[in-house]
Write a structure and sequence with these properties.
single chain; 162 residues; alpha+beta; 2 domains
């Protein structure tokens, strides 16, 4: 809107006042100063008659700039929404994975407890017991990784929202 007004302002008729004064002398004497001093004044009227369709070209340039700005804004809005959706999907996937791992941890903890009791009676080999404990610790590490991924995605979502 302001761009169009600026273009319109350049095509309005203009009235300007001009005043000029000057001295041209190579002699330092004050008597010669009267013959070498000049003054001038006048008015300047500028009426645009034909601009070769430059105003319409400027309007078209302004319209194209505005269309480009809107296109970029729409692109960035869509891109940001896609990033939001992607991060929300990652958060949901991390939460679902953590829930599955917690369930597996519950079962693995029960297995380790049962194997510990059977280890005392000699029904389970030490190697099998160590494998169960290793699996339990691996599941705990996997849960930590899933929580870390969820938090990383949550922080990225919070950062994107700022």
């Amino acid at each position: 809107m302001l761009d169009r007004q600026a273009v319109d302002a350049t095509y309005r008729p203009k009235l300007s006042a001009v005043v000029d004064a000057g001295v041209q002398s190579s002699q330092p004497a004050l008597l010669a100063l009267g013959h070498s001093t000049g003054f001038g004044a006048g008015f300047l009227l500028s009426l645009p008659i034909f601009d070769g369709h430059q105003r319409q070209l400027q309007y078209q340039r302004i319209d194209l700039t505005e269309q480009s700005r809107r296109g970029y804004r729409q692109f960035l809005t869509i891109q940001r929404q896609q990033q939001y959706d992607q991060l929300r999907g990652l958060i949901r996937a991390s939460e679902a994975l953590a829930a599955r791992i917690r369930e597996q941890l519950r079962v693995a903890e029960a297995l380790v407890g049962a194997a510990q009791q059977q280890l005392a009676t000699g029904d389970v080999l030490i190697l099998d017991y160590l494998n169960l404990v290793t699996s339990y610790r691996t599941l705990q590490f996997s849960l930590t990784q899933a929580e870390t991924d969820r938090l990383r995605s949550q922080y990225a979502l919070d950062y994107l929202g700022e």
